[in-house]
Structures are given as C-alpha cells and as structure tokens.
Design goal:
The chain has eight helices and five strands; from the N terminus they run H-E-H-H-H-E-H-H-H-E-H-E-E. The chain is an alpha+beta fold and 192 residues long. The chain has a domain at 6-137: Metal-dependent hydrolases (TIM Barrel). The strands form two sheets. A three-stranded antiparallel sheet has the order 3-4-5, with no helix packed on it. Strand 4 (171-176) and strand 5 form a beta hairpin. It starts with 5 loop residues before the first helix and ends in a 9-residue tail after the last strand.
Length: 192
C-alpha cells in the first residue's frame, strides 16, 4: 500500500522525482481491513465502511494522477502481480487505467491516468530514469528497435471503454535491437 501526503506529492513533483508505482496494487485489497482502521476511524468492515469518499485513505492512496500533475515522472515495472513465470505488465496498465478488478469497485478512481501516460511509464520514462532516452524508450530512427506485438489493439480497447479488459492482452512477439527474441506459439510460424 502506498499512501502519500499531499505535501509529499507536491515535493516529489517540485523535485521532478521518478515514481515507480505498482499500478496493479492501486486496486481494492481484501487485506484493507488489516490496514485502514489504523489510519482512520471506520465503522464496519464492508467496502463502503473502509473506502469512504473523502476519507484520508481514499484521498491519498496511490496518488498517481496527482503526482503526475505535480511534475513527477511516472515509471513502471513488471514485478507484480507475480502469479506465474511470465511478467504481466498489462495487469499493471489496467490498474493504472481503471484501478479495479472486474466486478469490484475502483480505488480512488480520480487518480487514474491515461493510456498514453501508462505506456510512457513503461517506455520512454523508464529510459529517461536511466539517462538513456537517446538509446531506447521510443521507436525512432537511431534508437534500438525494442518492441512487442500484442494480440489486441490496446488503443481501440480503451477508446471503446473496455479498459478493464487490458489485462487480457497477450504478447505475441518480443523484438530486441531489431531481432525477434520471443514468439508465442500462435505467432511462432510468422515470418520476421
């Protein structure tokens, strides 16, 4: 769980810090009952009792959009969720876009970010954080040709209000320095 006081968010923005959120964790957690009562007074153990709009927890948990607007740079990784050997970055992107799992309420939905901001967190912003944005992080001539091919049009999904399905996206191919280094079984016979 990440809580950030508004004064700290302002400082992180003023100092233009790189913030590596685990966006999947910006969703309601069944363990909330073991944490939230220590931060604020609650009455009951229902979702509504724990996640009162305007409460300290609800306003300050994973302040992603507020941090971005303050001037911080968002970056992302693939360290969660760890439920298989395969990294699952699209679950993290989905968490950034909707802040909930299917069929569950969103956690502080005012802190969602756009698809472009989420993709930048995974690409060019990570390269900037490493001081290597001239080498990789975007697909332009002279940079390393590092990219993936996915099974769905992520921009179309989001534009058609299906952001909650972004977590279902599968990687078909991975390319590094212009060479295919991974092909899913469905695209293994594709010609590079």
């Amino acid at each position: 769980m990440l809580l950030a006081n508004p004064a700290d968010v302002a400082r992180m923005g003023r100092d233009h810090l790189f913030l590596a959120f685990t966006y999947w964790w910006a969703t309601p957690d069944p363990e909330d009952m073991s944490v939230i009562p220590f931060l604020q007074r609650v009455s009951g153990n229902s979702y509504r009792a724990l996640h009162r709009p305007g409460s300290y927890y609800e306003e300050n948990v994973y302040p992603v959009r507020r941090s971005l607007r303050a001037g911080a740079t968002l970056v992302a990784g693939s360290d969660a969720p760890v439920v298989s050997r395969n990294p699952m970055p699209f679950f993290n992107i989905m968490g950034a876009l909707v802040r909930h799992e299917r069929g569950r309420p969103a956690l502080n939905p005012r802190q969602t970010i756009s698809l472009r901001d989420a993709l930048d967190a995974y690409t060019i912003n990570g390269a900037r954080m490493l001081g290597r944005e001239q080498e990789f992080g975007s697909l332009i001539p002279s940079k390393s040709a590092d990219f993936i091919i996915i099974d769905q049009d992520i921009f179309k999904l989001v534009a058609q209000s299906h952001a909650e399905t972004v977590g279902d996206i599968q990687v078909l191919e991975t390319w590094f320095q212009g060479r295919r280094v991974y092909a899913a079984a469905t695209s293994a016979n594709a010609t590079p």
